[in-house]
Design goal:
With about 350 residues, this protein is an alpha+beta fold. The protein is about 25% helix and about 25% strand.
């Protein structure tokens, strides 16, 4: 390799900020012991030579000017791939209905409970595909909370620790009627939004009441491909969502499609029932409504929505920042009862990471 193709030396502040020595990081917990402002103004590498880690692996020793600090970096650390946090489209396998119709990601509850490998595979499906169906979950009252606590923490809201999805006499939400519900994400009027939702089926004997899921990241990617201008409008327009009943008044203003600083899709919010009134100038309203209508049409496109039917004992666990869920209308005279709760992806991903660390490879 000649000088023109040699990799640029790592930036001094980056390298020093990552010094793993016991003066720089508490060996008991790996947490950093200094402030970025503690580093010298004229920080530079004074000398660099090959070394070995205590276990004998190749390493690099760096001596720093002006303070004479010495750092040791394992060679493999320099070439580690960027990890990502698992939340953007970069870490997902997006899907259309055809891809999953005959292979719904699912796991048997008893195996999930007793076998770390099954548990890791099930949680991995939520990370990659956005959902998993746990089968054979006992049809017991409040069991859904136990499912949430198997990987994380229940997010209590104004609906309570759990919510009953069944016909109610004075419903504060259309979910609690027999009406058809089009694909939506839950609670976009809340910030932070619950990033996971669970629906545990206790009874589904009514005619109708079938479930549907749409991959919102796939739909967003289609919009970006087919109408990049509309995609740009939706990522840049804050949309007011609101919910109110006698005891509650919630609002949050977020875009329908949220991208990370690198432009990758990270969250989708879509709920025709709780979208509020946008207050923008006429030109921006026109642009928003054209884009909103196009995105909505993509979400309803045949082929995108995966249809299935929950049976008693099924518990659907899904990513509420990515998947939209729907259900067909059902006869209010028949018995249909789900218990739902919210939880969050951070703890699910943590549980998965620990399972992997312990060797329960997914
Ligand atoms: C909900 C909902 C779907 C269903 O409660 O948020 O969308 O299958 N329910 O009843
Ligand atoms: Zn150090
Ligand atoms: Zn819902």
């Amino acid at each position: 390799m000649d000088a023109t193709t040699a990799p640029a030396p790592p930036p001094a502040y980056w390298l020093r900020d990552n010094c793993p020595c016991a003066d720089c990081r508490d060996p008991r917990n790996g947490q950093k012991l200094f402030q970025i402002t503690d580093l010298p103004e004229d920080l530079a590498v004074a000398a660099e030579r090959p070394a070995r880690t205590p276990s004998g692996a190749p390493a690099r020793e760096v001596v720093w000017a002006p303070d004479g600090h010495v750092s040791h970096y394992p060679e493999e650390w320099f070439t580690a791939a960027p990890a990502g946090d698992g939340r953007t489209e970069a870490d997902k396998e997006t899907w259309t209905a055809d891809a999953l119709r005959d292979r719904l990601p699912e796991a048997d509850w008893d195996a999930y409970r007793t076998d770390a490998g099954t548990r890791a595979r099930a949680l991995e499906q939520v990370l990659r595909l956005g959902f998993v169906v746990l089968r054979g979950v006992p049809c017991r009252d409040r069991q859904v909370l136990y499912v949430a606590r198997s990987f994380g923490y229940v997010r209590e809201t104004n609906y309570g620790e759990l919510f009953e999805v069944r016909v109610e006499r004075d419903p504060n939400n259309l979910a609690f009627t027999g009406q058809h519900i089009t694909p939506h994400t839950d609670n976009p009027y809340r910030d932070p939004v619950p990033t996971l939702q669970l629906l545990h089926c206790l009874a589904n004997a009514a005619r109708g009441g079938d479930s549907g899921l749409v991959d919102g990241f796939r739909a967003a990617a289609l919009l970006r491909e087919e109408a990049p201008g509309d995609f740009a409008v939706l990522t840049a327009t804050p949309v007011p969502f609101a919910f109110r009943d006698a005891r509650t008044e919630l609002r949050a203003e977020r875009p329908l499609i949220e991208t990370d600083p690198l432009g990758r899709v990270r969250e989708v919010r879509f709920n025709n029932r709780s979208i509020g009134t946008l207050r923008l100038d006429a030109a921006r309203l026109d642009a928003f409504y054209a884009a909103y209508r196009r995105f909505a049409a993509i979400l309803l496109r045949p082929g995108l929505q995966l249809d299935f039917r929950l049976a008693p004992g099924d518990c659907l666990v899904f990513d509420n920042t990515r998947l939209l869920h729907a259900r067909t209308a059902f006869e209010e005279s028949g018995e249909r009862h789900l218990q739902g709760t919210y939880a969050d992806l951070d703890s699910l991903l943590s549980t998965l990471a620990v399972l992997r660390r312990e060797g329960a490879a997914a």
